[in-house]
Amino acid sequence: MIVCIYWLLSSELLEIFLYNLATMDEASSSMQCLVCTEAINATRFGMEVCRACASFFKRTKQAGKQYSCRQGHRKCSTAKDEKLVCRGCRFDKCVAVGMEYDGPMRVRRKSMPILKRLLFNCRQDTSSEIYRIFIDESFEFFNNVYPALSEIAEKEREQIFKEYLAKFCIIENYQRSMRLWGSVTKIQTFSVTTCSDLYWKPNEEEEAVFADVDSVVSYTKNYIEDMNGIYLPIFTRCAWTEREYYAFMALVMFEIDCDLSEDAQFILEMYRRETLEDLQLHYRNDLGLLDFSSRLGNLMTANHAIQECMSLFKVRVRGLYSMFDMRMAENSIRDFYL
Fold it and tell me: For this UniProt entry, which residues form the secretion signal (predicted)?
């Protein structure tokens, strides 16, 4: 809750929020803060000051900040009941009452451009951790949406999830790319951390850093073009509603390329029927359609296309492992996709 508030408040309002938060437990004391007159029950920095003012003074010294006066005359009130306390006058009052800070100072480093920070942090260990988190949270989502699958064996449930998540990602890629870029033929956004530019060409510096970069670019471009050839025609033709899009993401799960128990097949069929029933209600009640056979047909065609894309996806992952000789120690990632 506090973290969310930090993000939403301006810097000045944040100071007031911390100010009030830090002094809530000191209201019953007879001593007063020399800076803001708030009741206190302990000294800080050897002075009779409250926790909020001590923290404010320390942060200001560590950051090397200099605040100007809100009114310009350096005589603003620093009392706690002021609506917006002037930070310049508050710091001056801290110095005037004798506050000193001789603790460690923060080393200020030159800011690195955001794109370089992104590239710097996109290491293999970082990427692996991102994918692990993604898989764990997706599995939690999967179990919440399809709770009846908890009745089957864990290994079988995980197999269904593995098949489903790859299809889910393919569909999300096209939906996200179209929403962000208005097209999927130049840039595809597989996730918030993975984006492919089909027309990107490495410069000399990048060619020197990344071995066989031309092969990687060509391989990725061919893969995306093959995927577009399979899925893009039906994707651009459908123009789904939001409800149809959700239904489609459910329907792709029911085509599983592995042997399943009767219990698992029964549960999947139950969810498939529920999805189709809800979809028909959407067509009749929300869209006012009497004949929706063509829209259902488009969904089934798109479903078949995604199954083909899934096969292509598995081939690509195997190719990447061969091309980059990825560490086999990453068993969780390797086993999940292969």
Answer: none
